[in-house]
Amino acid sequence: MAAQGPSPFTSPPNYAFPHHRLNLVQRHPEKQPIVLVACGSFSPVTYLHLRMFEMAVDFVRQNTDFEVLGGYMSPVSDAYKKPGLLNSKHRVNMCTLATEQTSSWLMVDPWEAFQSYQRTAVVLDHFEYEINTVLGGVQGRHVRVVLLAGSDLISTMSEPGVWSENDVCVPGAFSAPADSRGL
Q1: N vs C: which end of the chain shows fewer Cβ within 10 Å?
Q2: Spatial separation of the C-alpha atoms in residues 58 and 63, rounded to whole Å
Q3: What's the CATH code, domain 32-164?
């Protein structure tokens, strides 16, 4: 583990960052290590949520110089107040059952679900901290945290007042080629 000071993030009681399926040994050291993170309500989690991760991995393997070391579902807090939103405890449990039944590399991080509402950028900063500061990256290398988003989330990025410009315009962020289906 890397040396660290106190966490800049408040964690729920008994919280431990899940990394039991995170590949801490890179198979292709010439590639940039990344972790995929999907934030959402997952109310309920669907086959297409899981499929989105698999499609992203296929795209990354075939079209980039990145290596996916793991993936996370991060269910939103109950404070999001979306109509029909199931209780966070139930959504975390559903996501955990879905990932454990279908994947060897996907995990669910309950941190966001049990916070007050957090902006997506803060959630990604939490992953950055846990993976690169607490765990020390992978084999001493910095791991890039990549937001994996569905069209519903992407469409909100062009709505005035929904996203901070600093949260959407990140220098050096990964983007798919314009002619691809993207991530």
Answers
A1: N
A2: 8
A3: 3.40.50.620
Query: What's the half-sphere exposure (Cβ side, CA atoms, 13 Å) at 159?
Result: 7
**Torsion angles phi and psi, residue 109, rounded to 5:** -105, 115
- Record the pTM: 0.84
Domain spans in the chain, listed from the N-terminal domain onward: 32-164
Of 180, 179, 143, the closest CA to residue 55 belongs to: 180
Mean pLDDT in the chain? Answer: 87
Please give the sequence-ordered ranges of beta strands (E in DSSP) within the chain, or none if there are none: 32-40, 66-75, 106-108, 144-147
Cβ distance 120 to 167 under 8 Å? yes
Please, what is the Cα angle at 176 between 66 and 138, to 5 degrees? 20
Distant-in-sequence, close-in-space partners of 10: CB < 8 Å, separation ≥ 6:
115
Give the 3-state secondary structure percentages of the chain, helix then strand then coil, rounded to 5: 35, 15, 50
pLDDT tens-digit readout, 43-81:
999 999 999 999 999 999 999 999 999 999 999 999 998
**Longest alpha-carbon distance in the chain:** 45
**CA 156, CA 48: separation in Å to the nearest integer?**
19
